[in-house]
């Protein structure tokens, strides 16, 4: 019997981070602070092999992400391969590099869904936080193209202190563009966002106002638009079940081919993440030390070890525990029961700043 319990179920989804290249520079980007350059990216054949292996392993969905996945010239080939392998494919994009011809080609080869991010409802503010002139207008045009192509559209609305006042307008804009689902997601404070926490973390008053906005919008748009709402976990009493538990539902493949249990996991020291260039996805999922390390409950310290929530939130987020305490094995400080919870309370009283570090290669460490 292995100490992590029975062999895991197949993963539900594969997040294919095709590239870290992106024309936008969002200061809350979920990419790591150390970025992979174009020269370090997996080639087309390697990605196709990964997709084949994923389908064999039982993966149902592939999310083509980045960076900006449309920066890859072979995106149509990869979507075609995913569809031929029986995978449901979702394109997570900023949209600014998409046009009608490319979208039609993607739909033609079997793309199932588009998730388009919006930074704001106000053009000047949206363009400023993305550091890209004309981004907002381009995104609205791309939303219309997605609808015209007959593809389902999810609008991803990332919210933080600087745009929460315009949340009602953001929801109206996205619903008006024809999105059938909205994902309103507060910034999660890892990587670039953690570096910008003092400029982005909302106040409690803003959060309470946002809750009311979401509730009203859900009632108003019922039957027409589904609204998912991701809270900022700094204001929660219990942590989120990060990735539904380490190595339980998701595999993330970085642009260079490292397999991670979540997109931020590379920050954890002392873990030798396996590469799809040398190991099969099945071996990685079932047997690699990296995926076993925090799978299940055997690794947990107190208070998680004897807590009745341990198979609900799986002890929260390992990357957040590391980022805030310096030790990935600690209980996520977001939990009010965690010995390190004072770190969160202190962060909530941090003086706000307007300074932002934008996500750009020049401000990043380079992986390859
Ligand atoms: S969050 Fe912004 S910078 Fe990061 S990949 Fe998405 S669009 Fe690009
Ligand atoms: S003590 Fe651990 S298992 Fe219990 S609620 Fe907090 S993080 Fe979750």
Task: Describe the model.
It is a single chain. This protein is α/β, with parallel strands linked by helices and 368 residues long. Helices cover 32% and strands 14% of the residues. It is built from 13 helices and eleven strands. It has helices spanning 44-57, 75-84, 100-108, 123-130, 135-148, 167-176, 191-195, 197-200, 204-220, 281-287, 289-292, 318-325, 342-347, and strands at residues 13-17, 34-35, 61-65, 88-93, 113-118, 153-159, 181-186, 226-230, 250-253, 259-260, 365-366. It has a nine-stranded mixed beta sheet. Helix 6 links the parallel strand 6 (153-159) and strand 7 (181-186). Helix 1 runs parallel beside helix 2. The longest helix has 17 residues, at 204-220. The radius of gyration is 20 Å and the shape is globular. The mean pLDDT is 94. One iron/sulfur cluster (SF4) is lined by residues 22, 24-26, 29, 31, 66-68, 94, 117, 359.
Short description:
The protein is of the alpha/beta class and 368 residues long. 32% of the residues lie in helices and 14% in strands.
In spatial order, strands of the major sheet run 8-7-6-5-4-3-1-9-10
Stretches with pLDDT under 50, minimum 5 residues: none
What number is the mean pLDDT? 94
Helical percentage: 25-40%
The arrangement of helices and strands along the chain is: EEHEHEHEHHEHEHHHEEEHHHHE
Shape: globular
* Total count of strands: 11
Cα separation of the termini: 39 Å
Q: Structural class from helices and strands?
A: alpha/beta
Rg over C-alpha atoms, rounded to the nearest angstrom: 20 Å
Attribute tags:
368 residues; alpha/beta; two-stranded parallel sheet; binds iron/sulfur cluster
């Amino acid at each position: 019997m292995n100490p992590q319990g029975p062999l895991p179920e197949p993963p539900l989804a594969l997040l294919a981070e095709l590239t870290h290249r992106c024309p936008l520079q969002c200061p809350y980007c979920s990419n790591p602070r150390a970025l992979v350059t174009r020269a370090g990216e997996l080639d087309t054949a390697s990605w196709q092999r990964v997709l084949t292996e994923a389908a064999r392993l039982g993966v149902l969905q592939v999310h083509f992400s980045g960076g900006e996945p449309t920066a890859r010239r072979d995106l149509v080939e990869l979507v075609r391969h995913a569809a031929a392998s029986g995978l449901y494919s979702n394109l997570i994009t900023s949209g600014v590099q998409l046009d009608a011809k490319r979208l039609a080609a993607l739909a033609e080869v079997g793309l199932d869904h588009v998730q388009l991010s919006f930074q704001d409802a106000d053009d000047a503010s949206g363009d400023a936080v993305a550091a890209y002139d004309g981004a907002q207008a381009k995104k609205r045009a791309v939303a219309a193209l997605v609808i015209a192509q007959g593809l389902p559209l999810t609008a991803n609305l990332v919210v933080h202190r600087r745009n929460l006042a315009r949340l009602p307008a953001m929801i109206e804009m996205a619903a008006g563009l024809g999105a059938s689902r909205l994902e309103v997601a507060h910034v999660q404070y890892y990587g670039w966002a953690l570096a910008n926490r003092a400029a982005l973390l909302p106040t409690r008053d803003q959060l309470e106002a946002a809750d009311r906005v979401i509730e009203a919008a859900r009632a108003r748009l019922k039957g027409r638009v589904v609204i998912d709402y991701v809270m900022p976990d700094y204001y929660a009493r219990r942590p989120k079940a990060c990735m539904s538990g380490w190595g339980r539902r998701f595999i993330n493949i970085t642009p260079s081919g490292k397999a991670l249990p979540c997109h931020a996991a590379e920050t954890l020291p002392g873990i030798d993440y396996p590469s799809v260039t040398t190991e099969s996805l099945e071996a990685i999922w079932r047997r690699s030390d990296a995926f076993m390390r925090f799978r299940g409950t055997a690794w947990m310290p107190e208070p998680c070890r004897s807590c009745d929530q341990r198979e609900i939130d799986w002890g929260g987020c390992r990357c957040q525990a590391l980022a805030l305490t310096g030790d990935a094995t600690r209980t996520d400080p977001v939990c009010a029961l965690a010995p390190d919870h004072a770190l969160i309370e202190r962060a909530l009283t941090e003086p706000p700043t307007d300074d932002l570090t934008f996500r750009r290669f020049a401000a990043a460490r380079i992986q390859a």
